[in-house]
Write the structure tokens for this entry.
Amino acid sequence: MNRFHLTHATEFAYDGAVYESYNEVRLRPIHDDHQSCLSFRLITNPASRGSSYKDGFGNWIHLFNVLPQHRKLRIEAESVVLVHEVPTATSDVSLQELETMRPELLEAHFDWVTASAYVPHLPELGEIGSTVERSCDGTVAGFVQTASDFIHANFTYMKGATHVHSSVRDSITLRAGVCQDFAHVLLGVLRMRGLPARYVSGYLVSGGDSGSKQEEVIGGQASHAWAEVFIPGDGWIGFDPTLGNPIELRHIRVAYGRDYGDVPPVRGVYKGRAGQSLSVDVLFRPALDDTGNEHISERSSDQEVDTGPATELPQQQSQQ
């Protein structure tokens, strides 16, 4: 199935009254030649009137404010998405040929090649890149796939090993993390080799493979992250170092960024001295199952966030 009805509900519960909550949301799936967002709606409780715009990367951002005092804030995004196709790498451009293209790629894709806040250019990333280059087939596509495979094989998926503000240096030191971290490591390796690469925020819909790493990832939360790289001759191609599998029709794209800092699903601030806890529920429903009937799968995750006392506090959702 490649048509999905998605509901993403985020709820902040505060241990006291808060007010003047200002929020921005990136939850509307991407609409392009490979994926269609057939419908989208955003509901908040307390109710609010919002606005929306597209950022410089083409992502939809919805803004809303809740000014009166409140003890809970629920944000529910509902969308219907049709995934048409998944581009694959077919180019045989060599790494040697890439060297002559680097100035042109840097000029055309500056934001996707240079270092970013979460993905600094570190010597450790260069070392991984050198190891990968020695073992790949000498093509750009082969280098990217080998880099993704290396991260999948040498880094451990471990919830709690890192946090929402962790840098790529943290996951390299620990050799562990979650999808957000593995995407950052892959981005760093590729960019340091001169390849434009971007962070992808989205969803991974369960394929029903019980006991696999995929089920472990989705069981924590269906929100997911991976990377796309611009391969000369092919264009933008996705790679998922967390799963170690090719991008499939069950990878639903929501937003692009230089790193996670550009695309958090929910980001905001509020006034008050109350702490907060965060819960996220993601529900996805294929149009039809193999018998022609609708069925629903649901995954949920509760994340506790201790913000401590302050007059203006951040609220933000991470990706697992």
Notes: Confidence is low (pLDDT under 50) at residues 209-220, 294-312. The chain has two domains: 3-84+264-316, 95-262. The radius of gyration is 20 Å. The longest strand covers residues 3-25.
